[in-house]
Amino acid sequence: MNALRNRSPPVKLMLSIGGAGNDPNVFAKMSSSNTTRAIFIDSTIEVARNYGFDGVDLDWEFPGNDLDMLNLGWLYRQWRKALVHEARIAGKPRLLLTSAVYYAFTVQLDGPVRSYPSEAIRRYLDWISPMCFDYHGPWQNFTGPNSALFDPTSNFSTSYGIGSWIQSGVPARKVIMGLPLYGHTWTLKDPDSNGIGAPAIGKGPGDGTLTYDQILDFNSNNSNHAYVNFDNPTMTYYSYAGTSWVGYEDVGSIKLKIQFALSQGLGGYFFWALGQDRSWTISAQATKAWEE
Questions:
Q1: What are phi and psi of 92, to 5 degrees?
Q2: Which fold is adopted by the domain 184-248?
Q3: Which residues are known to be catalytic?
């Protein structure tokens, strides 16, 4: 913690609660009453202060219905008020309050269509982090981009998702765009049909997922004879060798996404996850593109 805090430029350290492996029903129950929300909020503040964090982050994947979304808004409101009160009493800077969210303002996944409490987000959060990835994966029987910037055939794209957040009333400066440092893999049904949308029969190498570091090894393996392609409509990369296929991001597509974020006036970007890069290859180029 001290090593991170002493970096130049300085780093803000966030305590994030949740993630894809957590049961969303636990968050639904916690957020359902003022009492349970208060217990949760007080515990996050205590842990954040005890361990020297600069803020707290919620990663609820994902509120399952309109009631969950309503309660999420109440949780944001109660949390922010508690953070302001605690900072005043303790005589310390207020802890930041952020949240990882679905790539788009409206969730159309595993249940009814439901929308986030955009007014509460605008008023009470310092920023949100839309997870702009996992648009396609080996759970489908066709290949597809993990993180398409554009998609002429559907709304599964970063341009659509980010646009929906801004249109909902969340200021662009409070939107931090997510970028993946991993790709999804498939096994092709026919090695001669190998573009985006090609028929597939299941997971490919890495049990369906490869980190960027592993993808570079896959592409450079002499025995693979991998073919690397840039798909202009979606602004993503894919490669294939025999029946193995992977869709991913590389330096070129990441630069295009950074340029998009800048054009929209976004507050920044994040990677999931830095440890999946190779010697900071993509993350260093993304920093350079942002600063240019």
A1: -125, 160
A2: Chitinase A; domain 3 (3.10.50)
A3: 61
Q: Where are the alpha helices (DSSP H) in the chain?
A: 2-5, 24-30, 34-50, 66-90, 118-124, 158-167, 212-220, 251-263, 281-291
Q: Shortest CA distance to 133 belongs to which of 159, 100, 99, 157? A: 157
Q: How far apart are CA 42 and CA 105, in angstroms?
A: 28
The contacts of residue 234 (CB under 8 Å, 6+ apart) are 145, 148, 149, 150, 151, 157, 196
Helix 158-167 / helix 251-263 crossing angle, nearest 10 deg: 20
How many contiguous H segments (helices) and E segments (strands) does the chain have? 9, 14
Kindly give the confidence (pLDDT) of every residue in the chain, 292 residues in length, as a single tens digit, with 9 standing for 90 and above: 888 888 888 889 999 999 999 999 999 999 999 999 999 999 999 999 999 999 999 999 999 999 999 999 999 999 999 999 999 999 999 999 999 999 999 999 888 999 999 999 999 999 999 999 999 999 999 999 999 999 999 999 999 999 999 999 999 999 999 999 999 999 999 999 999 999 999 999 999 999 999 999 999 997 888 999 999 999 999 999 999 999 999 999 999 999 999 999 999 999 999 999 999 999 999 999 999 8
Residues 6+ apart with CB under 8 A from 249: 146, 147, 179, 180, 181, 183, 212, 236, 237, 257, 282
Residue 94 DSSP symbol: P
Q: How far apart are CA 242 and CA 251, in angstroms?
A: 24
CATH topology of domain 1-180+249-291: TIM Barrel (3.20.20)
- The residues spanned by each domain of the chain are 1-180+249-291, 184-248
C-alpha to C-alpha distance for 89 and 84, rounded to whole angstroms: 9
